[in-house]
Amino acid sequence: MTTGISIKTFAPDRLAQPLTDHGFPRYRSVQVLQWIYQHHATSFEEMTNIAKQDRSRLAELFTIEAIRPLKTERSVDGTRKLLFGLADGHRVESVLIPDADRTTLCISSQVGCKQACRFCLTGSSGFVRNLQGWEIADQVLEAARLLRRESSPGITNIVLMGMGEPLDNYQETIRALAIMTSDKALGISPRRITLSTSGLVPTIDALGKSGARVNLAISLNAPSDDVRNRIMPVNLRYPLNDLLAACRRYPLEPRRRITFEYVLLKNINDSEQDARAVARMLKGIRCKINLIPFNPFPGCAFNRPEDRTVRAFQQILLQHHF
Fold first, then answer.
1. pLDDT of residue 3
2. What confidence tier does 299 reach under pLDDT thresholds 50, 70, 90?
């Protein structure tokens, strides 16, 4: 049984200090990070450009913890759901979504979720715990390792839109983003990362000021406070006026937009009148809209709209230049 400190708990730009404290040269941190995140090493023994004596010393002081792949399910369109095991026995899911010119990975930030959105299966299961930053980023590392074994194209885009609310786990989400975007670690451009939130206004503001520079997606799903209160309890704390004001404050780089996700629920938020209300509400915000027909699950109270209803809703938004 090892008692070493997990080396992944150190941010990429903070690893040099604990290593130099133990007598290693500063450049050793760059080597270790490259082996873990770019060469996918799972032990210090694999780090062959590091002296054997130093590898042994590293193994005495630190561990390389990792989430464990447990199961993969593949859809007919090539989408894969990945189930990962955590050290405490809990589990989280990620989803690999292939497309013609990209491979997107949707990752989780919590075990369960506190937000209790009524149309969300994860929300119905309650909250267990936050993921640590390295556990969030490890989903990317493990998926990349899977694709490399298959000689498949690598991950091009990351979406924090799996289990949990990333802004309810703000500090660990920021740590995960540091691992994902650091050239010393996973090296993914912030332009390729999207964070989706149910609308936690104070942490939307904090994210905008953090310098993370990732894309923002808002789970909107309603044309009014009345409807959103019924399907998303978060709206009771941060109603639409406050949420949209935060969106207008969010710093956007040129040619970038906020994404508004809108899950269409039959006879709840899918009418042509609702579409026109959404168009009025989002006027003046540089944005795009992702319409998502609801995917029913056992025991849910909602149904998927008819395709013609979805198309009519879409057409109205297009007519308003969204």
1. 60
2. confident
CA distance 41 to 58: 14
- The token duo for 108 is 């989780």
| Structure tokens, 161 | 């839109």
- pTM of the complete model: 0.94
Mean pLDDT, the chain, as a whole number?
95
Rounded CA gap, 302 and 267, in Å?
9
- The angle, 0 to 180 degrees and rounded to 10, between the axes of the packed helices 201-210 and 170-181 is 30
Q: How far apart are CA 320 and CA 322, in angstroms?
A: 6
pLDDT digit string, tens, across residues 173-183:
999 999 999 99
Spatial CA neighbour of 95 closest among 257, 295, 311: 295
The Cα–Cα gap between 279 and 237 comes to: 23
> Has residue 1 got a pLDDT over 50?
no
SS (H, E, C) the chain: CCCCEEHHHCCHHHCHHHHHHCCCCCHHHHHHHHHHHCCCCCCHHHCCCCCHHHHHHHHHHEECCCCEEEEEEECCCCCEEEEEECCCCCEEEEEEEECCCCEEEEECCEEECCCCCCCCHHHHCCEEEECCHHHHHHHHHHHHHHHHHCCCCCCCEEEECCCCCHHHHHHHHHHHHHHHHCCCCCCCCHHHEEEEECCCHHHHHHHHHHCCCCEEEEECCCCCHHHHHHHCCHHHHCCHHHHHHHHHHCCCCCCCCEEEEEEECCCCCCCHHHHHHHHHHHCCCCEEEEEEECCCCCCCCCCCCCHHHHHHHHHHHHHCCC
Whether the CB-CB separation of 232 and 222 falls below 8 Å is answered with yes
Q: Which residues, in sequence order, are CB contacts of 3 under 8 Å at separation 6+?
A: none
